């Protein structure tokens, strides 16, 4: 084998392998795991949790000493003058003269320390920052549940459309066989041309619907990949076993307090309570310690390049101040802010009550839908079997002239409708199943 031949074979092998590699089999669990790692909503919720650590760090900083370096350089082109009675110093008559005070140049450098000794807002802010992280952690969990729900529903939608396409393809193959039989009968003068034409028209209509359904499958797969955060150009194949119907033992009631939606609202209420306390902190005094040390140079010359010999004098100074601020009256502004903070709490209480009611409703609806879907599945499965029998018998009767073409087409359409109804019943069940476990707060453990 020549080198060129070896290279060609290797190229074909690589190309074939890459082609196989491009098509990826994706289970429902794979789709969910991929979405939780790649979907923008999931990534942002994780970043919010990380950001909460920095919010805690920022809150702690308000309770720690703040040390700053300070510096200044001032030039006074015109010094301010003051009227001074020179005669009063010598005991003589009054002699008012205008005397300049200060120096043309003033430079200083130093450090300043600020420490909050007592400030209710600082302490409350630290507690609120820790609760904020817990809020983001719960929100991350809620975001994951929402992603799981969207991905699961999109996954099931793809299967449903694919199943309908397969049903129609089966109908097309069956109608095509009937057309061939009619054509054979027509060629032998035993069938009417109108029957052959009607069958061909029906085949054309089915081909048109198949084209639309393939487009629907492509759109449904693209929607699934979008919810997964997967590049749209990726080629995926889904696993049919994920559409299996497994009856579940249904609970009568649920504990809504354990639902992530309620826990998020409860944590939000805790944050609003801290907000109210932070507003109430304006009633309390604050105590701050300020200490500074500076080194200053003054004179008629530029102080940074001249010393005492040039008339520039440097000296240091320091001060320690303990400041107390006691609020007395601010026109009832704090009282109004406290009342507004309480109203936000009352509004959230109403939201929590309404959310729990909505969760109870969603659970009961999902439970009812599962029960109805199971009954519908049994009925539709029996109906499909019956429709298959009717279609088979009608086709046989048509061949012997015991049934009309209309009867044959109607029987075939009834079979397609029965199979589509069964596919819809499976979809309704799987969606209700997702809602059921979501309402119980077990969606992540059930599907992951």
Main sheet strand line-up = 2-5-7-8
Any idea how many domains? 2
| SSE string | HEHHEEHEEHHEHEEHHH
The count of strands amounts to 8
Mean pLDDT: 87
Distance between the termini: 51 Å
What does this structure look like?
There is one protein chain. This protein has helices at residues 3-22, 28-38, 40-61, 87-90, 120-187, 193-228, 260-280, 333-399, 405-440, 443-447, and strands spanning 23-26, 66-75, 81-85, 96-100, 105-118, 235-238, 286-299, 313-325. It contains ten helices and eight strands. It is an alpha+beta fold and 448 residues long. The strands form three sheets. Strands 2-5-7-8 form a four-stranded antiparallel β-sheet, with no helix packed on it. It has a two-stranded parallel ribbon with strand order 1-6. It has two domains: 32-62 and 119-283 and 330-447, Outer membrane efflux proteins (OEP), CATH 1.20.1600.10; 72-89 and 98-118 and 285-326.
SSE blueprint:
Elements: H1 3-22, E1 23-26, H2 28-38, H3 40-61, E2 66-75, E3 81-85, H4 87-90, E4 96-100, E5 105-118, H5 120-187, H6 193-228, E6 235-238, H7 260-280, E7 286-299, E8 313-325, H8 333-399, H9 405-440, H10 443-447
Helix pairs in contact: 2-5, 3-5, 5-6, 5-7, 5-9, 7-8, 8-9
